[in-house]
Structures are given as structure tokens and as C-alpha cells.
Task: inverse folding
């Protein structure tokens, strides 16, 4: 049986096991016929809420391609015994690599990989200290899209690394990465700051049962989003709110929600003259809309980041959210929530009007589907850059990405081919580790994606200046939205002046 | 160095051979970081060039003009005074109560000390959950008593956020005051109290005229230790509010941490830390003089 057919058959088999159509014994027997040993069929994965590795346990049987591992083994011989280090946020690829996949790389290569999973702000601290001291403590950098400008000179451009034919993975195909992501996450000032590693993006997630009960349809406009949320709040509140938000003062999540509202009302953060224009007519319209929408949110929303927002939907406290698509597999997992199968997805509501990229600055691209995401890159200060490059290619290859997604990661793949991979498609059903939301994620990336500006000061502006002032506004610290936005404009000017 | 020389040093009357290791440790772990911090406060880290650049007194000038610094300073002082006053008052009241040898009070003293072994960051996380607007017990009780409106999240409302953080602080550290005061009460002589009782003094008179004056040194030490700790508050703010909403709960330590580690402004972060150190030193010395504490 060809490897491709074997994988496809195994995927359909595991799907049947998850759906309960075949028993564990039948699954094991058939899997054994496919040449899989008992060790490969271990069923002991642990899962904590929102660590983004699904409990689609049967999918553990999925293994990396033997051809890819053979290449890893061949090319890694000079580096056996090396230890590589990566500090990363808790994201689907990192969690899947760390908990389930890196062992295959380590066995094949003889290279040990240590992955530190940390809160995002601590990743930034470690990364900063590493580049400032040039110590090379970390061989690979996890670079959030908002840091790309700051660290673009501290990493190798993967396009240049690929020129080294001796270390280049066959069929790595850098053009397979979704062009919109390469532009939105990885490019700064002509340099490619790593390759797109993960892509959380805002999509519309809503409780279909509640929507059906109240005769509502998935919102296609910002106005419908507001009216639907209000209708649910009136019918079900306060036990169930219309929509959940991520509005913790001073947290990056609040800035993410703000940009979605701003872009959705025809506004932008900067104009072509590099001036903050969140305080213009469209910006204030967005604030008025958002302030009104907040009335359809639960009381605790001011203290929530995306975690609280996701939990609100998972626990039935809110009926919808315009937020990161990677929450969806968690919502669909019957062992984790009571809303498995009750949620549906849709592309984000259309903006009232949308500015184009040339009407903004610093590469800002308005779109209601706010894009997060990160790149993976080899540090220029690494003492083992070649070994790190081998690992990076393997970790971001189409085969590994398909495994990460099939294991229930939830985030959208960053490669075009992975969306069509049979192992990924086999999971497109209700249940743990579902991928049934990925077509919507793909469409959102292609047509509705909004990207934040790229500038070195953006880390401070997006994680402090803007969300602190927004938090102050929502807690009554400003007399009006205009005063809040004008204050932000002044502060942004100060930061940009240095 | 010859063996004879080593022997000569070892039997000499000079204290330096014995003090030198400790002095070296002091220099490495205290003097050097302090001097480096001062040096850093006249520089700023430039992320683009990955180098420290001399900026003269710019960081100190910025401090003077930084509205957020003054806000953080005032929040720190409010936090300091409110927590200290409540912890002293509650601590003394509970200590006086526990000083009576009633059945079960021994166990109660042991239970009280348990809060001290919880790391402040964990206590902060506990109180974050306790004050959750959806399922927090504290929120539920306040809602039930009509003290708090259901739509008011404690930690996300300007008027209540600092009180929410203070609740965790006071819960965790009042027992520390209780233990210190209790030890002080147990060490007081009994004769003055017996004499006062014979003279017909009331309990309140005895407390005001005898207990408080005799406990003043103990109270002063407790105030000094807790006061320094309170001025450096970080963990509760970090875990419960991240300084928000807006800048309502920004304290000096949190602000210094944020500037240093989040925004890579190492020079300004050092300036803020030094400012905090100077304020603590001045306040502590003033207090020592006023309270006439002798070590």
C-alpha cells in the first residue's frame, strides 16, 4: 500500500473509532495490519483546557512520513548530540511538537530539542535578553507578528538558508506558505523574518441552537452582529449573553478586539502620513458601536483576555464570539464542554466600509478578521544554526503541519497544501480535534484578514498604550470616547517620537 | 603564598582575613548591582543597535514629567497606607482575642499562620477567581448583601479594583501581624496589669495606657517590615489586574517591571527602581527616628 493511501485509510479508520462506529479492538487489529506497532497506538495523551492539543486520541497513531524522517536522519548525522532550545508561547504547533511529535525528530536525528512553553510576555523577555546579550541561549525564536520589526535583524532569512542545498529539505516548498500570511506575519523591510508558524484569526463562532431558537442567522454585517447579540441578550440574559469579548484592560487582547471594530467601521490605526487616526470619524463610530455591543456581553468581560472569552462560550455564558478560530475544536470536544456540535462558524461580518492598504501606513491592512500569528526562525546567535535549521524545516514542513492539525491543534495551517491533506480533512466532523472550521478559516485568511502595522514601537503601542487607554475608557476613566481616542493619539505621537 | 604566610595571617589579630569573603559577597551581590543600576539609569538600551547609549539625566527628567510615574506613586502610597492601617488594626484585634487561652484558639493560631506559606502570586490567582463576576464567592456575597451591583466586576471597575487587590493583600498578611503582636503580648509583664485591675481600670483604659505603650516597639518593627514589603507590591497586581483598569492599580514596582522587561527601557526601569529604593530608605529612616526604634 502506498504511504499516501495508508495514511488516508488510517485517517478514515480513526474517524470511525472517534465516532464510535468501530470498537477499539477492531481499530487495533486493522491498524496492526497496516504495520503499526502497539507503541504507536498509545492512548495516554493528557489535555488541559486551551492548551490547544485536542484529545482526539486515536489520531496519535498518525506518524511523520518515513521519507521525511529518513532525510532528517541523513542530514543530521554531523549534529548528533546537539541540544536545541526554543522558547515559545503555548500555541497549537508548539504544544503538539512538544508533547507528541518532537520525539520522532529526536530519534531520527540524535538532536535533542528542548521547548520552553511560556506566557507570551515572558517569551518576549527571554528573546530580548538573548539578542541583547548575543548569548545564543535559544537556537530558534518564536516571533509574534507584532515583534517582527524589532527582531528582523536577529534571525536568518529562510530564503537565504534554503540556498544551502546540502541542508535543504526536499519538497520543503517555501511558496506553499499562504502568501497573505507571508506578507502579514513574516515580511519586514524586505526581509523574511522566519516562516509562518501559526495563524490564529478572528472568525465568527456562534451557537447555532440558540440562533435557530430565536430565528436568527449568522451575521453578515456589523449591524447584524449587534442586533443578533442584542436579541439574544434580551431573550436569554443575563444567564446567557449575546456575545463574549476579550476586553481586559492593558492586555493585547483588548487591542485585538479594538482593531476588529475599528477596521469593521472603515477606520484604521494610521493614515499614510503615519499619524494615529483612531480618533477620526470612523474611529469614533467604531467606539460607539463597540460601547453599545458591550451591553450584550457578560459582566465579567472587562477582566477577560481571549481565555475568558473562550470559556464564556464553552460554559454557555455567551452565545457567540468574534474571535480566534482555534478555540473551535475545544468547543466541539464532548469531553471538555457541553456544547459539542452546537457551535457553527462563519466568516467575520462585512465591514461597513474598508480602507485599503495604501490608505494606511506601516503595512497595516484593514479587515474584520484580525490576524494574529507568529513565525519560527533560526537565531543569528545560535551556536548550532544548521541543526536548528534542520529542525525548523521539519517542524514547518507540510507533513508535520498536517500532523499538528490532524492531532487537533485547531489553528489554521499556514501552508496551502495542508488544508487539502486527507488526514486533515478526515477530521472535519463534530467531535474532539475537529477541523470542520478550517474552510472558513481559509476563506477568512484569503478575503477578510486584517493585519496590524509593522513598526518597532508596535509591541509597546499594542500591548500597553492602546489597551491601557481603552481599559480606562471602559472603566469610566474618560468623559467620552473622543477624549480617550485623542489621548491615545497624543501618546502614540510621543512613543513614535521616541 | 607560603604555608608560613598563611599561618601568620590566620593567627593575626586583623579581622580582614575573616571579613574578606563576606565583604566580597556583599560587593558582588549588593554593591555591584546598586552601582550598575545607578550607571544604567544614565543610559538607555537601543533595541535597534542592541547597545546601551549614554543619555545623561534624560531618564530622571522623564521621570519628573511622566504622569504615569506620579500616578503609580500615588497608587503605591494609597495601597501602602490603607493596607498598613487595616493590617495593624485587624492584626492587633485578632491578637488580643487570641491572647485569651480559650479552647480551640491554639488551632486557630496554627490555621492563621497557614496563609503565610502561600506564594503571593498564588494568593492573587485565588482572589482573582474569588472575585470573578460570574462565579466568585466574594462577588456573590457582596451582590447578596446589596453592597455591589451585579453588573460591576470588582477588578475591572476603576472604583473597586484597588480594593479588590487590597483584599488579597490584607487576607494574606494580617496573620503575620497577628503572630508578631501575639508574641509581643505574651512577653509583656503581668504586674502593671494586675495593679491597674486593683485600681479599677477598665479593659480599654488598660489597653490604651499599658498595652499600647509597652507594645510600641513591637508595633514599630511590624510596621517597618510590612511597610517595606507593601511599598514593593508586585505579585497581586501582576496576577489580578495587570495594573488595570486603565492605570488604576499601577504600582511603582509593576511600572518598573513593565518598563524594563516589556518595553526594554532598561535605563528608565533602573531609574524607577532606584527611585523606589530612595523613597523606601527615606521613609524607613524617618520612621525609625520618629518611632525611636533602637536595634
Result:
Amino acid at each position: 500500500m502506498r504511504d499516501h493511501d495508508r495514511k488516508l485509510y488510517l485517517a478514515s479508520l480513526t474517524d470511525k473509532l472517534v465516532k464510535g462506529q468501530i470498537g477499539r479492538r477492531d481499530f487495533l487489529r486493522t491498524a496492526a495490519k497496516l504495520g503499526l506497532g502497539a507503541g504507536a497506538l498509545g492512548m495516554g495523551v493528557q489535555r488541559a483546557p486551551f492548551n490547544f492539543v485536542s484529545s482526539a486520541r486515536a489520531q496519535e497513531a498518525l506518524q511523520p512520513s518515513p521519507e521525511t524522517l529518513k532525510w532528517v536522519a541523513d542530514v543530521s548525522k554531523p549534529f548528533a548530540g546537539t541540544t536545541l532550545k526554543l522558547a515559545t508561547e503555548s500555541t497549537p504547533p508548539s504544544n503538539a511538537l512538544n508533547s507528541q511529535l518532537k520525539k520522532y525528530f529526536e530519534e531520527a536525528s540524535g538532536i535533542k530539542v528542548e521547548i520552553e512553553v511560556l506566557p507570551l510576555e515572558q517569551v518576549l523577555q527571554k528573546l530580548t535578553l538573548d539578542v541583547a546579550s548575543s548569548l545564543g541561549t535559544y537556537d530558534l525564536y518564536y516571533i509574534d507578528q507584532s515583534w517582527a520589526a524589532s527582531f528582523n535583524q536577529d534571525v536568518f532569512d529562510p530564503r537565504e538558508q534554503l540556498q544551502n542545498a546540502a541542508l535543504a529539505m526536499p519538497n520543503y516548498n517555501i511558496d506553499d506558505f499562504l502568501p497573505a500570511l507571508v506578507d502579514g506575519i513574516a515580511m519586514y523591510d524586505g526581509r523574511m523574518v522566519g516562516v509562518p508558524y501559526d495563524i490564529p484569526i478572528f472568525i465568527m463562532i456562534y451557537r447555532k441552537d440558540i440562533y435557530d431558537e430565536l430565528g436568527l442567522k449568522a451575521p453578515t454585517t456589523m449591524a447584524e452582529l449587534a442586533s443578533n447579540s442584542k436579541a439574544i441578550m434580551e431573550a436569554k440574559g443575563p444567564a446567557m449573553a449575546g456575545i463574549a469579548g476579550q476586553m481586559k484592560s492593558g492586555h493585547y487582547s483588548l487591542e485585538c478586539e479594538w482593531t476588529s471594530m475599528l477596521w469593521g467601521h472603515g477606520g484604521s490605526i494610521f493614515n499614510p502620513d503615519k499619524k494615529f487616526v483612531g480618533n477620526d470619524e470612523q474611529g469614533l463610530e467604531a467606539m460607539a458601536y463597540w460601547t453599545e455591543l458591550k451591553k450584550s456581553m457578560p459582566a465579567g468581560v472587562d477582566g477577560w483576555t481571549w481565555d475568558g472569552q473562550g470559556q464564556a462560550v464553552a460554559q454557555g455564558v455567551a452565545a457567540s464570539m468574534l474571535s480566534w478560530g482555534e478555540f473551535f475544536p475545544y468547543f466541539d470536544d464532548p469531553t471538555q464542554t457541553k456544547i459539542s456540535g452546537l457551535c457553527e462558524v462563519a466568516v467575520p461580518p462585512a465591514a461597513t466600509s474598508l480602507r485599503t492598504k495604501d490608505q494606511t501606513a506601516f503595512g497595516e491592512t484593514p479587515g474584520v478578521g484580525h490576524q494574529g500569528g507568529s513565525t519560527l526562525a533560526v537565531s543569528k546567535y545560535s551556536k548550532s544554526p544548521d541543526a536548528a535549521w534542520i529542525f525548523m524545516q521539519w517542524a514547518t514542513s507540510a507533513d508535520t503541519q498536517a500532523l499538528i492539525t490532524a492531532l487537533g491543534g485547531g489553528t489554521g495551517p499556514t501552508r496551502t497544501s495542508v488544508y487539502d491533506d486527507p488526514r486533515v480533512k478526515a477530521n472535519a466532523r463534530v467531535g474532539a480535534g475537529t477541523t470542520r472550521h478550517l474552510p472558513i478559516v481559509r476563506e477568512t485568511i484569503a478575503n477578510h484578514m486584517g493585519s496590524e502595522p509593522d513598526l518597532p514601537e508596535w509591541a509597546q503601542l499594542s500591548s500597553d498604550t492602546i489597551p491601557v487607554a481603552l481599559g480606562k475608557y471602559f472603566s469610566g476613566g474618560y468623559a467620552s470616547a473622543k477624549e480617550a481616542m485623542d489621548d491615545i493619539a497624543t501618546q502614540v505621537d510621543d512613543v513614535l517620537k521616541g | 603564598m607560603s604555608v608560613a604566610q598563611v599561618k601568620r595571617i590566620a593567627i593575626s589579630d586583623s579581622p580582614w582575613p575573616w571579613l574578606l569573603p563576606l565583604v566580597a559577597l556583599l560587593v558582588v551581590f549588593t554593591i555591584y548591582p546598586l552601582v550598575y543600576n545607578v550607571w544604567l539609569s544614565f543610559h538607555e538600551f537601543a533595541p535597534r543597535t542592541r547597545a546601551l547609549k549614554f543619555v545623561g539625566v534624560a531618564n530622571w527628567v522623564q521621570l519628573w514629567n511622566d504622569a504615569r510615574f506620579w500616578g503609580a506613586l500615588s497608587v503605591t502610597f494609597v495601597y501602602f497606607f490603607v493596607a498598613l492601617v487595616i493590617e495593624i488594626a485587624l492584626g492587633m484585634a485578632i491578637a488580643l482575642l487570641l491572647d485569651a487561652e480559650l479552647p480551640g484558639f491554639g488551632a486557630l493560631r496554627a490555621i492563621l499562620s497557614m496563609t503565610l506559606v502561600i506564594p503571593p502570586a498564588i494568593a492573587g490567582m485565588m482572589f482573582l477567581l474569588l472575585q470573578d463576576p460570574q462565579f466568585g464567592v466574594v462577588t456573590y456575597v457582596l451582590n447578596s448583601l446589596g453592597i455591589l451591583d451585579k453588573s460591576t466586576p470588582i477588578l475591572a471597575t476603576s472604583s473597586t479594583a484597588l480594593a479588590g487587590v487590597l483584599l488579597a493583600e490584607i487576607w494574606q498578611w494580617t496573620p503575620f501581624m497577628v503572630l508578631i503582636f501575639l508574641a509581643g503580648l505574651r512577653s509583656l509583664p503581668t504586674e502593671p496589669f494586675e495593679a491597674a485591675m486593683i485600681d479599677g481600670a477598665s479593659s480599654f483604659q488598660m489597653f490604651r495606657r499599658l498595652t499600647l505603650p509597652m507594645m510600641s516597639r513591637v508595633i514599630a518593627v511590624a510596621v517597618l517590615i510590612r511597610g517595606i514589603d507593601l511599598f514593593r507590591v508586585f505579585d497581586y497586581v501582576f496576577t489580578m489586574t495587570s495594573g488595570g483598569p486603565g492605570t488604576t492599580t499601577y504600582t511603582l514596582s509593576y511600572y518598573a517591571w513593565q518598563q524594563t522587561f516589556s518595553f526594554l527601557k532598561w535605563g528608565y526601569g533602573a531609574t524607577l527602581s532606584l527611585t523606589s529604593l530612595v523613597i523606601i530608605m527615606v521613609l524607613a529612616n524617618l520612621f525609625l527616628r520618629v518611632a525611636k526604634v533602637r536595634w
Remarks:
- DSSP finds 13 helices and two strands in chain B.
- Residues 67-99 of chain B form the longest helix (33 residues).
- The mean pLDDT of chain B is 90.
